[in-house]
Structure formats: C-alpha cells, structure tokens
Amino acid sequence: xxxxxxxxxxxxxxxxxxxxxxxxxxxxxxxxxxxxxxxxxxxxxxxxxxxxxxxxxxxxxxxxxxxxxxxxxxxxxxxxxxxxxxxxxxxxxxxxxxxxxxxxxxxxxxxxxxxxxxxxxxxxxxxxxxxxxxxxxxxxxxxxxxxxxxxxxxxxxxxxxxxxxxxxxxxxxxxxxxxxxxxxxxxxxxxxxxxxxxxxxxxxxxxxxxxxxxxxxxxxxxxxxxxxx
Length: 229
Description:
Order of helices and strands: HEEEEEEEEEEEEEE
InterPro entries: DUF3108-like
Helix content: under 10%
Strand content: over 45%
Strand order of the largest sheet: 6-7-9-10-11-12-13-14-1-2-3-4-5-8
Organism: Meiothermus ruber
CATH class: Mainly Beta
Largest sheet: 14 strands, antiparallel
Protein name: DUF3108 domain-containing protein
Number of domains: 1
Keywords: Signal
Low-confidence stretches: 1-15
Pfam family, one: DUF3108_like
Number of strands: 14
C-alpha cells in the first residue's frame, strides 16, 4: 500500500501538467485578451475552466457571444475534441445562404504538442474528421470530410504586441478543408486552403497571429494577460 501511494504521489504532478503546457497554459483565473484588426476587426477574451488531469474547457467571449470548446490533454499534447458551441454556422453563398451543423467524430494529432517538440524545424499536424448536415433554401444535404491544420516552427524571434515584447516561436500554419456535400445522387466537394502565421511565447501562449483567407487578412494580437484567481 505504501508503495502504491508513493507511485500515485509521484504521478500526480505529471498528470496535472498535461493540460498546463508551457506554450498553452491552463491556469484557473487566467484571462487572455485579444484584439483583431483587418478584414473582420473586433476583440475577444479567452479563459479556461473545468481543468482536470485530462481535459479542460476553453471559453471564448466576444461581442457576438460565448463559445466553448473542450480540449483533451495527453502526453503527446493538447487537441480539441469537439466544436462546442462553434459547430453550427451560416455562410453567405449567392442569393441563398448556407447553414450547417458539424460534429467531430475523430481526432488525430494535436494542436499544441508537448514541450520537447517546440524547436525550430519542428512540425506537427491536427486532423479533425467531421460529419454533419447543411441546408441551402429547400435543399438539405449531408456533410463529411476533414479539417486539417499543419504547423511548422520556422524561427524564434522577438515580437511586440500591446501586451509587451515577447521572445516567441514563429509558426507557419496551413489550414486545409476537405468536405463533401451529399444530397441524394448529387455530390459536391468543398475544398480550400488558407495560410497563417502565429507566434507563441513560453508561459504565455499565443501572442500574435496573422490569418490570410480569400476575403483578406486578419491580425490578432494579445492586449493583456490577467492572472487572477
């Protein structure tokens, strides 16, 4: 019994730290505040709650409302396991907008890897296999496919945001959408890619990102990190 207790005591800190990664801290009371400039300007904050040894909930608060996403923590890193309140949406497509509702059915890889992977030249990938439904006017259809994000660490450099100066790793990201809509005998592919750059600082997390899409460019910057609790 004493030996078992000793093993549990030794193991507990390591397990607790799975969700509290240096480049994606999960601390009660911490709040990250960001501003967005560019094609879709705005502001939002992020905090993490329901933190356990193997998961946490990330809460994103903006003027449009609150979005919650659950993340899984493993020795390999951190990955989302659902869209939370972000799975549904609406896309303008000509005269009739498209509404959709997607669910994650399988997760491969991680969004934030363990500490040892953070080095110039390092890379990793996150693949979300999704299924759901959509509607455009009277037409209803099923949706299936993958959302794949590839991350590559290209440099370590100093970056400045309204929150201060940070020594950060610069990541190049590629986001690839490979979806197919099926309505009876009709099958239509929805494939596109977007590129991005992001900077992550140790013991802070994301401090800046630049996302490029067909509509334009959005720049996200850390304004403040509140360490309450």
